[in-house]
Sequence to fold (243 residues):
Amino acid sequence: MKTVFDELVFGPPGLGGVLYLPGPSGGGSKICDRSPYGNVGTITGATWMRLSSGLWCVNFDGVDDCVSCGHEASLDITTEGTWLAWVKASQLLSSTAHHTIFSKAKRSATPEEANYWVAIVSTVDGVGYLEFYAKDAGGNWTSLVDDTTPLSTGDFYHLAVVFAGGQVSLYVNGRRVKRGTLSISSLLATTGDLEVGRGQGGGGVVAYHFAGGIALPSIYNYAWSELQVQNAFGREKYLFGVW
Fold:
């Protein structure tokens, strides 16, 4: 039997949604994708954590946990896209540097491929900044990294990245904190899996794990407006104790 809570939080995403993983009540080893594309998330190692609001999210240990969503064509973002998630890091280590939220890459390819990589970068323990990376056709990195709004451990943040024709906007809690241009105008598709909570190092070695909770991860195949990002933050913030 559905409740009002189910309808408000776990309904399907809006137009253009290619991934939405709100999580089933009570957990499970898979997360049903509420988008029309059925990009089901398979949990490896990560556990379920229930918030005081009643919402369930996935908790990652920062060592070997991830959620893998496969590599269907719907997950390849090329000319426009939007990535959103609520995250609460339990540790941000400078030795790890990059703490992955979304990664769709195949770094075992020659040249290496990375359709997109959304993460938190940390150069000082306990503090991080939102970042977006991709690779060009030659396997070279192109990126935009925030340097204005530090993220700390122990708090939930609503993070969003919007890409459109080479332009990237980074958002924290509904506010645009950084805007810039990549060296490529479109992102390159890859057959690499989309993973939540884990990235890839050189040669395809798993690396750059996230430690902490990730909730309501979603991806859209078009560029959201600033107002849409603000509305999403305002609609969901009470579930995470953000006012």
Summary: Residues 167 and 204 are 27 Å apart (CA to CA). The first strand starts at residue 17 and ends at 20. The helical segments are 4-10, 226-236. Residues 3-8 have pLDDT under 50 and may be disordered.
